[in-house]
Design brief:
- By secondary structure, this protein is mostly helical.
- It has one domain (1-118): NADH:ubiquinone/plastoquinone oxidoreductase, chain 3 (Methane Monooxygenase Hydroxylase, Chain G, domain 1), CATH 1.20.58.1610.
- It is 62% helix and 0% strand.
- It has 4 helices and no strands.
- The longest helix has 32 residues, at 2-33.
- The radius of gyration is 26 Å and the shape is flat.
- It is found in: Cell membrane; Membrane.
- This is NADH-quinone oxidoreductase subunit.
- Pfam families: Oxidored_q4.
């Protein structure tokens, strides 16, 4: 009986060691392989693909960035509604399921067309205001 407890604790210790190694491994590897030279772009407060303008206390981004992010979130959440349709597809008739799916994706496509017509996907070139 004592041997069984020892085996169980050994499993726990091994899993704990592997978990800690998986958590600390990427940190150690990135510390060893990371470049030592810091460039000006690396020291920017946000690395999101757009250059900030203004002071450090008043960082401003163009509104089109936020609109683009909101559209992405809306469609990302809408795609989550397609998973239940895919899992329950065999319980409904094929014509009804496909027609509902086409209507849903069609409405999403109209939203993309509307955003495209409104110019959300065009990035205007603006000068920096310091």
């Amino acid at each position: 009986m004592a041997e069984q407890y020892l085996v169980n604790y050994t499993y726990v210790a091994v899993f704990l060691a592997v978990g800690i190694a998986c958590g600390l491994g990427p940190l150690v590897i990135s510390r060893l392989l990371a470049p030592r030279i810091l460039y000006r772009k690396t020291l920017d407060p946000y690395e999101c693909g757009m250059d900030p303008y203004g002071s450090a206390w008043n960082i401003r981004f163009d509104i089109s960035y936020y609109l683009y992010a909101l559209i992405f979130l809306a469609f990302d959440v809408d795609v989550l509604y397609l998973f239940p349709v895919a899992t329950a597809f065999d319980t409904v008739s094929a014509v009804r399921g496909i027609s509902e799916l086409v209507i849903f994706v069609g409405i999403l496509s109209l939203a993309i067309v509307y955003a495209w017509v409104k110019g959300v996907f065009t990035w205007p070139n603006k000068r920096k205001v310091c």
